[in-house]
Design brief:
Structural class: mainly alpha
Mean pLDDT: 80
Low-confidence stretches: none
Number of domains: 1
Order of helices and strands: HHH
Number of strands: 0
């Protein structure tokens, strides 16, 4: 026999999958913004204290990530035809 909790369904609104996705994405975006702000503050503090140290591997990784992102977002309509 399936166990149910009648009070739970009465409190929780029923959302469409689109609405749930929208709410979920908004929450993730908000969390990402907060984490980014914390990271920026941490790096600023390290720079001010003179303790910020970045490895060459981290710089290369960042450049590669940036270039790959740029390539993936190219607007092929503005590129010459490839034959």
């Amino acid at each position: 026999m399936k166990r149910t909790n009648p009070g739970r369904d009465a409190v929780r609104p029923i959302l469409s999958s689109e609405a749930y996705s929208s709410v979920h994405l908004a929450a993730l975006a908000s969390r990402k913004a907060k984490l980014r702000a914390q990271k920026v503050q941490r790096i600023k503090k390290q720079i001010e204290e003179g303790t910020y140290d970045v490895s060459a591997a981290d710089i290369i990784r960042g450049i590669a990530r940036s270039e790959i992102s740029w390539l993936l977002n190219l607007d092929y309509a503005h590129l010459p035809e490839m034959r």
